[in-house]
Each structure stands twice: as C-alpha cells, then as structure tokens.
User: Fold these one by one.
Assistant:
Number 1:
Amino acid sequence: MASPVAIAVQAGKLLREQALRPRLLAVRSQAGHLTSRRWLNLQEYQSKKLMSEHGVRVQRFFVASTANEALEAAKRLNAKEIVLKAQILAGGRGKGVFNSGLKGGVHLTKDPNVVGQLAKQMIGYNLTTKQTPKEGVKVNKVMVAEALNISRETYLAILMDRSHNGPVIVGSPQGGVDIEEVAASSPELIFKEQIDIFEGIKDNQAQRMAENLGFHGPLKNQAADQIKKLYHLFLKIDATQVEVNPFGETPEGQVVCFDAKINFDDNAEFRQKDIFAMDDKSENEPIENEAARYDLKYIGLDGNIACFVNGAGLAMATCDIIFLNGGKPANFLDLGGGVKEAQVYQAFKLLTSDPKVEAILVNIFGGIVNCAIIANGITKACRELELKVPLVVRLEGTNVQEAQNILKNSGLPITSAVDLEDAAKKAVASVAKK
Ligand code: GDP
Ligand code: MN
C-alpha cells in the first residue's frame, strides 16, 4: 500500500506532468515511460464552474479575454476586494513572472481600474512559473473574482491510487505551497483516507479528514461537507484527480476552494461529452493539434531523428534504442491502429515540417496495419514532398515482403533495416555523417 507521502508526491507529480506535458513527455520518454496519451485540460475557471454546479464553494467570478472586459467584470462584481488570476494550465502562478515585466499571476486589489491595468499586462503575454517551460505560457484569459480573506490555507486532493485500486483523499493542514515540499519537510502533516469506491465516502472519513486539516467547531462539519461534495464531483465527472490548493478558511467562518485543478479519465470521453467539449487546446503546440486532425499523436522532443511508429510501446523502445546508439529523437508520431495511406502522407508532412529533423526513422509493426499500405504511403510522400533527409525504414509483420518490394522497386533512396537495432544504428549514422 502506498504511504500518504508517496500519494501526495504522486498527486503533485500528476498535476505537474499535465501542466508540463510536452516537456515531461520528453523527460519521461528518456526514462522509458513514454505515453502518447492526450489529456483533457480545463482552466481554473472551467473547473470552478463544475465545482459550483456541484455545491462546492468557490468565489463569485467572471472570465475576461481583454483588459476592458476585466475592468467591466471588476465593476460588475461590486466586491470589497478583487482577485485577478491569469488562466494557464500550470500552477505556481502566484509566484510567476510575465514577459511584460509584471510579477505575479495572482493579484489582489480593491480598485477595478487597477484590475484593468494589471489585466493589460497579463493578457497576450507569457507567464512563466515553476511549472511552465522557460519561455512561459501565453495568457489568453483572466479570471476576475471576488477576493476573500484567508485565515488558513490547507491542501486537499482526491485521486485514483493505483496501489489501492480506488480513490484516495490526500490532505494537509499545510496548504498553499507545493505538496511535494510538505511531503519532503513534514511528512507527518500529510493525511490520507482510502475510499471504497462501491461504498462511497463515509461520514466519519470526511470528518476525520476535516479534523486532520485543522478545521474545528462548526468549520469541521462544513469542511467535511465540502469534502463529500468534492468526492461526489470527482466520481460523477470521471476525474482522475481533483486538487484544491488552497482549500482555505475565511475569518468569517467559511470553507472555500480558492484554487482548482481537475484531471480527467480520457476513456470516459463518451459519457462526459459536455466536459470534453470544453477542452482548451490553445496550450497545445500547433503541430499537436494538426496531428490530432488526422488521428495521429505527435510528441515533440529535442533531438534530430524523427520517429514514425505505431503504438506507445514501440515508441518507447524506439526512443531507448536511439539513445543507446548515441542519437536523440526529435519527435514521435504515433500512427495508432487502422492506418490509411493518406495518414502516412500527412505524417511525413508533419515530421518534415520540423526544422530540427535531420533524419526519419520509420519503425512499424504490422499487426492490424498492413505493411504494404505503409510502404505505399511512404513512397508517395517521398515523391510528393521531395524528401530531403535520410529515411530509414524498418517494417515487420503483415505483408512485409510485399512492402519491402514496394520500397526496393521505388527507386527512392530509402534505407531498409532488418530489425530495430539495425534501424537505429543506420538512422544515427545518417545524422552523424552530415
Ligand atoms: P497558484 O499560485 O497557481 O497555485 O494560484 P492560487 O489560486 O493557488 O493562488 C495563489 C495564492 O494567492 C494562494 O495560495 C493564496 O494565498 C492567494 N490567493 C488566491 N486567491 C485569494 C483570495 O481570494 N484572497 C486572498 N487573500 N488570497 C488569495
Ligand atoms: Mn494553488
């Protein structure tokens, strides 16, 4: 059974991963854990809308896409104090910096005009936080919310725990900061409650978590009630993680979710259509979106050998073997199952549009895929795109003989490889020669 600390670290890591998806995939692939998964990402304001629809307490807010809209929203809120928050998928915004020079992705002010001025320095600029790439992430929207005083910040997350095969609630009275930091410095301040998914959350579990988080008196019941509502939301929307940091307390005696990050199970898309329709793809790389249009999965890495594969397992193996032979992958394009010739053409177009690419390695195992279709796609793409970089092809499986004949008889400068090792060696060598 995973310890509370391990789960807390897992909770933090999951979120970081999703925020830093492209980068982390690169790192993870190097460590041998490549996944070609696309995740649904929601901005804070979208998550909070779901929460408020499920009885979870969040602040009143508006969303704005221009400084003027932000100003109007601030006036309309008619609040004593306003909190203005940049909407990006990464956390750590409070301590982030914009390339406009503005410090902080979260600002408190009493003056709606200041909201307008700050929003002007946020929208359209990149915000860099501990969880973003160095160049930051462009801010397209801001959240303008009624600010509340916070007397205490705690941490609360609900996530699927593999080792327990079910949901677990993780909490700490020490919130507002990165949960990994708490896990490292004060592991005794991390608490967990395992939930039996068939029985659901029990009153005493919600109460115990509320108490561990340091809520006392009437606040304890309120916090327990919020925890239960968050759990019901978690189940209903097929979340894999709901994280609230800070899960705070106000001097007026209210328990409020000041921040929100929700991750979803992509396999549930068919029954969560409304939620998936909110998917904010604006933070994807354009090439990822382009790939998705053709049912291809693209992952950018920072080497120079493009990899054209089918399946995450083969992608992982290809990556490892390129590294072992002294090379570095530039990207992965995963074909998936039922391939059409036109897809192969699009795949090549995408791969070669990346100026980093100095060679292409095709590594496809024809199980469901017919190798001849791939070979026809490859030769067509080579001709029409006037491919300029060396191409190494390793095909195996269904109809491989015919595929090899197609490649050989094409008259194109395609290097065939007998197996994966051979393919990687040839691809690495073709780059080294240049
Ligand atoms: P993050 O930095 O991306 O995690 O963004 P958060 O939404 O968690 O905001 C960062 C910090 O700003 C929180 O930990 C709070 O300390 C503070 N903050 C956010 N909203 C409010 C608010 O309404 N009132 C007050 N007083 N502080 C807030
Ligand atoms: Mn936060």
Number 2:
Amino acid sequence: MKLLVIGSGGREHAIAKKFTESPLVKTVFCAKGNIGMIQDGIQLVDIAENDHDSLIQFVKAEQIAWTFVGPELSLFEGITDAFETAGLKIFGPSKKAADLECSKQFAKDLMKKYAIPTASYKTFEEYKLAVSYVESKGVPIVIKADGLAAGKGVIIAVTMKEATDALRHMLLEGKYATGKPKVVIEEYLEGEEFSLFALVNGSNYYYAGVAQDHKRAYDGDEGPNTGGMGAYSPVPQVSKERIQEVMETVIKPTVNAMVAEGCPFKGVIYAGLMMTNKGLKVIEYNARFGDPETQVLMHQLASDLAQIIDDILNEKTPLIKMHTDRYTLGIVVSAEGYPEFPMSNISIPQMTTKGTGCNIYVAGMKKVETNLVSSGGRILLVEAQGTTLQEAQKKAYRYLEDNPICHTYYRMDIGEKAIQFGENKKDPKNKVLFN
Ligand code: AMP
Ligand code: GLY
C-alpha cells in the first residue's frame, strides 16, 4: 500500500522511516517533509500542510490507503474532518477531539469532570482577576496560555514579577493567543516527569511506549521551556506497575470521557505525566506523537507500525511489542538563541553516521543552492542505542563531539537523571523494568 505522512519535522521523519520498513508498504509520501527524508527513500510532496483540497486530490490520485497526521497544527486546522468528509481514511483526531491538546481549558475541564488526576487550576480572561488569584495562591505557580504554543506558552513563575509579566504578555498583549486571550493558572507540581503514548480508536486504546523528554533549554532543567531538547526510552524510573496505573487511571477514563462528550478520539494520545509525592498527575495531553520522543520511540517499537495503524483503522486489535533489550537516546541540536530568538540560516556541514551506530533525524534544515542551512530553532537530532542507557548516551555525545556545528547548542545532560537513578537505586523491589 501507499501511505502519506503529514508534517515536516524529525517526528515525521521517524514515523515515515518506520513505515518504509513495513513489508505492507510500497511507497511513503510526506507533505511537505524535509530534506533529511530523501536518503531514507521517503517521497516529498510539495503541498502545504494546510492545503486540504490539494492534499485530498493527491491522495485520491495516488490511491493512498491512509494518511498519518504528525503535527498538532494540522489537527487544529481540521485536516481529519476534511479528509473524512472526502471519504478518506486518516489517523488523527477530529478538530473537536484535538481540543484535548489545543485547548488547555477543555482538557482541564474534562479531567475535573471525569476525576482524572491533575493539578488544581482556574481559567482567566481578565488580567486584574488573574493577578489577584496569583497573589492569593503565591509562587511558584504555573501560567499557561490557552491555545497552541509549541511547548513555549507555559511559564513556571518563581517570583511574583515573573507571574505578572507572564499574565501581562498573555492577557494584555495576546502573546500565543489565536482568539480571545485566556490563561489557565495551575498549581505547581514537583516530581519526575514522563510521557506515555497510547494509540486510540473510540473506546479502544493500546499502550505504545514511554519516553522522557527534556523540556527546558539548558542543563539541569534550567532556562525557558522549549519543544524538547532530547529524549530517551524506556524510562527506568517508570515501572510496569506505574504504566498499568496510567493506562487504568488516565488513558481509559480519558478515552471514555471523549466518547461520552460526543467527540470520540482516534489517533495518538500523549499523556504528559508527573509522579508527585501526592500521586500521579496529568500535566497535559497532546493529540499526537511527541517530538523528539517519537524519534527514540520508533527504535523501541519492535512491531510493524504500518500494520498497527492499519489494524486500528480497520477496528482490529493490533500487535504492539516493544524491544526489551535496549535503550534509545536522542539529543537535539538547536540554533543559537533558541527558543526565543533562534539564529537562522546557520551553515550545516555534510554529516555521515556510517560506522558510528548513530542516526540523524532532521528537524529544520533546507538546501540553499548546494549548501545545507538551518531553517528553524531545532535543527536535528542525533540518536543512538545501547544495551544500557549510558552506552546509548556515550555514543550520541561522541558523535556530536566529533561533528561540531558552529552557532548551535545542545544539552549535555540528556538521560543523566535516569542514569543517576540506576546508580543510586537502593530499594531492590523498585527494580528497573523494561517496558
Ligand atoms: P505543557 O505545555 O502543559 O506540557 O507544559 C510544558 C512543561 O511545563 C511541562 O512539560 C512541564 O515540564 C512544565 N509544567 C507544566 N505544567 C506544570 C505544573 N503544573 N507544574 C510543574 N511543571 C509544569
Ligand atoms: N516534546 C514535547 C512535545 O512534543 O510536545
């Protein structure tokens, strides 16, 4: 069969590459894709991700079996609704169901209504009321712009000034707002953060792995929030029992709630979770795979992703198996100044991974004449595997040391917390479980 992937980042590169490995698949197209995909045999389609009419025409002309949606923006723009109206199969939620990610207020209200554990919160449109609320609660406190902000619309305010500055930017100046500015103000949660992925169709849901991202820009979880600076999978701090708990207390009630609310979910539910000392809490939902989590997750998935999605779309039970004998770790290389003011058009040298045991997934790179230059804040991800997390980490960092790129940076501590956890593990019952 022929498949189409929507998107153009590292996540879509990893998904499309995984599809090419399936014996069921003849051709994988990606709209618009990126230059890094070509060497993996993925066919780039020069149609904008929001040009639904042209995409539909293309899918019909090429007789594509189904389409997989990578980014949240496409879901927010209603690509699933447009494709389904045209009678085409697509894996991704409807615009309404994508509110699970696209509207923080929808997600928080849903969790409250269906008793899904999350941080306490209140929603505000009025600057003065929001400031009084923050004053009454004190800091640290979390302020989130309602709407899509590529991971950047969340401010963890440690001082009152940071809190009022964030409220001013979001409510008075409309930073990140697509409609009327609105914020969700949340209790600050402390603990170990991880992401769990589930593949969903209506009331059916299937576990598809865990990963840990590194959201802050700098080492030691310092600096501004980003789209993600590196990831690894599996997560030794997350036991099999914990995964079962998430499936039972978060994923199951969420999919049932979406059915009950009249907007059944089809696609990927990505639960951002925190293990706090008051128990497990949902930080956020995303309605698609994570970037850079997907790049590492695809290497941990032992089953055929094309077969899995085909089965789910045809209401059959898929076989989803994860590798249990290895770790994958990926490090994002970002442009100087990312996330606030990323430098553009940074010259990128030709890089080869031959003989290194590493893979590269391109996120933001283009060709200008014969030269490669950066085209976005996150440029690429270098990823490696190992039988231990240390081995994967060492390989990936060695590659980056051997292949420096001027005017870029990356975090030096991807995977470090998990490695420390492994070394400090004192409780023999809390043994590291592969998942
Ligand atoms: P979100 O876009 O909601 O995922 O938030 C981005 C990041 O901000 C999360 O991955 C967390 O690291 C952090 N964050 C969000 N909400 C909270 C919270 N209530 N307490 C602590 N950290 C949070
Ligand atoms: N890595 C975070 C995200 O994809 O939202």
